[in-house]
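User: Assemble these into one structure.

Assistant: Restating your components, then the assembled model:
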Amino acid sequence: MNILEIINKKKNKELLTKEELSFAFNGYDKGDILDYQMASLLMAITINGLTEEEVFNLTEIFIESGEKISFEGFDYVDKHSTGGIGDKTTLIVAPIVAACGIPILKMSGRGLGHTGGTIDKLESIKDFKINLSIEEIKESLIKNKIVLVGQSANIAPLDKKIYLLRDVTSTVESIDLIAVSIMSKKIALGAKNIVIDLKVGNGALVKNMNDAYLLASLMKKIGTKFERNVSFIISNMGNPLGLTIGNSLEVLESIQVLKGNGAYDITNLSLVLSAKLIEMHKKIDFKEAFMMAKNALDKGLAFNKFLELIKNQDGILGSLTRAKNEMVIYSQKTGYITSIDAYGLGVEAKNIKAGRATKEDIIDYQVGIELHYQVGQLVKEDQPLATVYYNEVKPNEEKILKCFKIENEKIENKLILGVINYDSN
Amino acid sequence: MNILEIINKKKNKELLTKEELSFAFNGYDKGDILDYQMASLLMAITINGLTEEEVFNLTEIFIESGEKISFEGFDYVDKHSTGGIGDKTTLIVAPIVAACGIPILKMSGRGLGHTGGTIDKLESIKDFKINLSIEEIKESLIKNKIVLVGQSANIAPLDKKIYLLRDVTSTVESIDLIAVSIMSKKIALGAKNIVIDLKVGNGALVKNMNDAYLLASLMKKIGTKFERNVSFIISNMGNPLGLTIGNSLEVLESIQVLKGNGAYDITNLSLVLSAKLIEMHKKIDFKEAFMMAKNALDKGLAFNKFLELIKNQDGILGSLTRAKNEMVIYSQKTGYITSIDAYGLGVEAKNIKAGRATKEDIIDYQVGIELHYQVGQLVKEDQPLATVYYNEVKPNEEKILKCFKIENEKIENKLILGVINYDSN
């Protein structure tokens, strides 16, 4: 077998056998296949796609590249977001669910393209330990019911490697590779019930509803193949979620949400995702599950869980700071905000180092963008639309301003676009 | 500008501006854009293609990445082959044309995919100097009328870099990138009249006549844009050209052709290519030009030119050797050879180190395959079909044997499939 012939086959839209996929991907894992060859193969896969059989095989290769977690007779849930601008729901959903007595183990990734990763956010918390051993994970899961870790405990290590390369070669927006990446980690991690927050819009990996349904359908098929229940909340990522973009800023906002002072959009989506997990795990009605979630938030139980989590993983919350330099972006007219370009703000946030452009880039946790208005709100001329916190790289004022569309007619920001339920038997 | 956005645009079949192409390609030249990013972009270009405007712009970027040769009032010709298995026509055509008094300056590349490069062949000649300064080139061109050099005298250096990366990322078979690569070097090299030997078949970069016409038409357009005359001979590369594959072996065969003892196919194609150059340069009839070429070959003038070339560039011919280990491939039946799989033999030759699989691979000049029969000939059971010369890597006997198709009916091997003339005014 020869890597050039394998790349060539995919370039010509031919089917790759399990052996060929293994030769390429496990070869890359071992270092026999080089970065530029994998980059070329990934682009061919991104453009020409994979068949279902190739997807199942690649998922298995990813799973088998590392350890699999499974705690005999101990059920826990998992939640995933396909990544959006300002998406900090994991930091809110996990404490809510755990506060309802349901164990949740969440393994998160780093920044992907123009979107931020949950692990980058957690790392902005001083000393927060993102790497736990399997023993530590099990212990914490039983004791605290909540564990948030990085993708490093030898779970699908191949996915981590491929993920970093995709991030810097514009091959993140592949339905097939996204499905394999997400599902291989979810399956290796052992949760029986999984909710996926599938973001759609120009700020997300998935740009339209058609792709969202394709991706959901493919992930559900992978779930069935590997005996997992998977449900999907399809949510709008045309506008940023909540009021902040950037690592420390997003943790600070999550705390506000957990204290009951969050913006409506981020609060409500977090409750829906939590309720879906509670519904699946407890096999109860969605409405009942939603009330349980809301109660945990309103009574401060979720916030206490969050503090417990930080303490359990050695984090020091008080250390969270914003960058010292501030640039205030002022509205140039009076009107209703009809859209905020999530993708555009994601790119600008990346440019000031809130995200990565190359594999070797180091993120600046303190920088980011804070919005003072959301879609649907009225803003007056000369009012501050946003504040940008930055260090070395000065933000591009003009480009950020262009992300805000202000018009005379008010429009509604519809956040939840669809729900795809797991097949309950 | 951002490389990820540029790759993304091409992935989505969008047009790249000249500035974006320059950012990506000149950035790669400077080392700002990394191998894996360029590999990803090259695959997106290979699959999604370039527009004519993008092709013109990229050609200019390649040309401007280095020096341009132009000797005021001094016309010379150039010849190019798109590369086939066993193609050593440059080693024969250049001496014929020069023997007819027409200056020829040929700059050649290294091995590309499963095909060998002329420079690799020349380097199998001990001490042969493949790098000459512009001054040395001019001097030799005036004195000897013949110069064969490597792609290193700072002519389109960006092409050389991209060429090496394409070679190891399965992005060689792109009509657009082939056109840009060939034409940028031809134009920078300053020849007014150019003949391109466009190979078609499973052993060539171009697999079918349709792609051949597309490529020829695109190169002719680039020629017109940059004021050059370009003609094309479309020749069959379903079967290997001549009797040898591998560097030293091919030089030894070229000497046989120049001495008048060559196989018919390689001898005739070399004469046609030479005649086309003579026709264009002298503005005479093709038939007359063909007679001039044949005369130069028959009278030994071309062979003398070849010896002059080797001497002028410090080569020592006597040093050419084959690898010591021999594997003889025997026919398992009696019949006519109806096809010899050029691509298959090219891959096997590469596997025993006659070619490169990765950028860093070192070629073994002594190894290769010598055919004892060509298509159309009768072979008897147990007769030797081929001899493989090898060093460390043992050849795959079974795979090589499979390249020969032997049947009861004799078929004719049609070598020249078409001619596309330059627009003479």
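The domain at 77-152+182-318+415-420 of chain A is CATH 3.40.1030.10 (Pyrimidine Nucleoside Phosphorylase; Chain A, domain 2).
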